[in-house]
Amino acid sequence: ESVRRRFGLPPGYFITVGSGDPRKNIQIIPEALKLAALNIPLALVGWSGWAANSGSDTAARSLGYVSNDDLAKLYSGASGLVYPSLYEGFGLPILEAMACGCPVVCSRRSSIPEVAGSAALFMNDPHSPGELASLLKNLAHDPALRMAMAERGKAQADSFSWERTTKQMVEVFNSL
């Protein structure tokens, strides 16, 4: 509550995390929110180096860099992480959001499906604001869906642990 208020966000906001890099594809989010007729603000977290291409809008609030503690609280208070990226090497914000119980809407590109597993709502066409609008509308209006996604997301995030990664790396080194 206090972090949400400090950043001037109402309950039920959406969040996106990353740079304004064109591959992050965040410019479609405000358009999708308009198409869905959702009066829900978007919190933009991270460096905005490509701000001219970020699709900023009056419904979007750029928070810039935030502390890890604040980021976890922002994820926890959001209705969902919106991550329509065209390409990711991994997609850490997806796991961060899931670990915080934040539902995720993301594209079905590059490494993202492996990271998100079956715990996200996927856009088949990350260039379609209409498809994103439909997913955001469903998420915004269905508390049971948000709760189910939060539970699946936590389980998915738990499957990525440093202990498991270390064990797998040791197995690879031993096999060599």
Topology of helices and strands:
Layout lengths: L1 H5 L7 E4 L10 H8 L6 E4 L14 E5 L3 H10 L2 E4 L8 H8 L4 E4 L4 H5 L4 E3 L5 H13 L1 H16 L3 H14 L1
Parallel strand pairs: 1-2, 1-4, 2-3, 4-5, 5-6
Helix pairs in contact: 2-6, 4-7
Total strands: the figure is 6
Overall mean pLDDT:
92
Please give the largest β-sheet: 6 strands, parallel
Query: What's the total helix number?
Result: 8
Q: Spans with pLDDT under 50 lasting ≥5 residues?
A: 52-56
What is the succession of H and E elements? HEHEEHEHEHEHHH
Structural class label: alpha/beta
Shape type: globular
Quaternary organization: single chain
Side-by-side strand order of the widest sheet: 3-2-1-4-5-6
Radius of gyration: 16 Å
Q: Proportion of β residues?
A: 5-15%
Keywords, separated by commas or semicolons:
176 residues, 6-stranded parallel sheet, 8 helices, 6 strands
Short description:
With 176 residues, this protein is an alpha/beta fold. The chain contains 8 helices and 6 strands, in the order H-E-H-E-E-H-E-H-E-H-E-H-H-H. It has helices at 2-6, 28-35, 68-77, 92-99, 112-116, 129-141, 143-158, 162-175, and strands at residues 14-17, 42-45, 60-64, 80-83, 104-107, 121-123.
